[in-house]
């Protein structure tokens, strides 16, 4: 629903009065304009969307959250009630821009809450991500003990690094996230929408002979090295994770690429056998170009 500010019909003029006040974050003005619309056009469906947004403006607060549950409740209200309404009222991507200050306010209110894995979405870092405040999200995540070994904060840091510095800077963390949490890796790829990674992902989905479920993505880093050997220097920056088979396969692939450059034939054959034992699909992808 995009309002036509050039249409001079009475109902459209009244809707535009509401929208204009919302764009200024003027809660009182928006409420008056919405009441005027309701008085003259009580059946106008736009009132439902406008009402949710006006309620959110009137409920703005800077009072810190004292419980994780309160932060989660406020986040859910903004994402499930207000965000869909904003998408209907504001044209195209301007809705995300309009919502950013409200997400930032929630982040400020959640700043004192410690990280809890069972209430991860209540933490300040993902709220800063929703507000497109990448540096603040990165800083908040870095203060979580062992963040690189916990799926949620690792995912947050990976997104923040990508937004701040681009794909090359994010690749080592993407690799670690694929090993640690294939499901979060999958969700993050959808949010990032990176053309390069998505192209690799589509080819992986069609060519990798795995179990056919989301856990196949743990093998994605090892498989990528069979297609893009030039990424090896970036992948080497990934820190050890749980040392499960997908991680070992990626490390083996890095070793194989090094052995090939050095011409160490005997060790190369042994490493290939180890890779075949770990995962036949990665081995097949590797041997396809050898």
Helix content: 55-70%
Q: Please, how many helices?
A: 16
Following the backbone from N to C, one meets helices and strands in this order, namely HHHHHHHHHHHHHHHH
Q: Enumerate the spans where pLDDT stays under 50 for 5 or more consecutive residues.
A: none
State the major sheet: none
The helix-and-strand class reads mainly alpha
| Large-scale geometry | elongated
What integer is the average pLDDT? 95
Number of strands: 0
Q: Cα distance, first to last residue?
A: 55 Å
Rounded radius of gyration (Å): 25 Å
Determine the strand fraction and express it as a percent band.
Answer: under 5%
Q: If you had to describe this structure to a student in words, what would you say it looks like?
A:
It is a single chain. The chain is elongated. The protein is mainly α. The longest helix is centred in the N-terminal third of the chain and has 22 residues, at 68-89. It has helices at 10-23, 27-40, 46-58, 68-89, 94-109, 124-130, 134-142, 151-165, 167-180, 182-192, 195-207, 220-227, 232-235, 245-262, 265-278, 280-287. The protein is built from 16 helices and no strands. It has a domain at 146-290.
């Amino acid at each position: 629903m995009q309002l036509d500010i050039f249409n001079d019909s009475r109902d459209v003029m009244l809707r535009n009065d509401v929208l204009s006040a919302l764009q200024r974050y003027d809660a009182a003005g928006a409420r008056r304009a919405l009441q005027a619309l309701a008085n003259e056009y009580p059946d106008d469906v736009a009132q439902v969307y406008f009402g949710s947004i006006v309620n959110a403006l009137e409920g703005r607060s800077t009072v810190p959250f004292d419980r994780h549950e309160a932060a989660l409740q406020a986040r859910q209200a903004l994402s499930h009630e207000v965000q869909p309404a904003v998408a209907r009222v504001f044209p195209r991507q301007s809705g995300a821009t309009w919502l950013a200050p409200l997400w930032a306010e929630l982040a400020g209110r959640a700043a004192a809450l410690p990280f809890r894995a069972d209430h991860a979405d209540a933490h300040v870092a993902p709220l800063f991500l929703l507000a497109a405040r990448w540096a603040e999200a990165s800083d908040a995540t870095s203060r979580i003990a062992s963040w690189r070994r916990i799926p949620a904060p690792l995912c947050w840091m990976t997104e923040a690094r990508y937004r701040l510095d681009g794909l090359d800077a994010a690749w080592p963390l993407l690799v670690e996230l694929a090993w640690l949490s294939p499901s979060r890796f999958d969700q993050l790829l959808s949010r990032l929408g990176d053309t390069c990674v998505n192209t690799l992902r589509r080819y992986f989905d069609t060519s990798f002979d795995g179990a056919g479920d989301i856990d196949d993505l743990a093998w994605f880093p090892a498989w990528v090295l069979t297609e893009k050997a030039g990424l090896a220097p970036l992948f080497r920056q990934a820190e050890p994770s749980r040392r499960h088979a997908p991680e070992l396969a990626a490390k083996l692939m890095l070793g194989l690429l090094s052995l090939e450059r050095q011409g160490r034939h005997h060790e190369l054959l042994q490493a290939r056998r180890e890779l075949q034992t770990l995962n036949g699909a990665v081995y097949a992808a590797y041997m396809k170009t050898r």
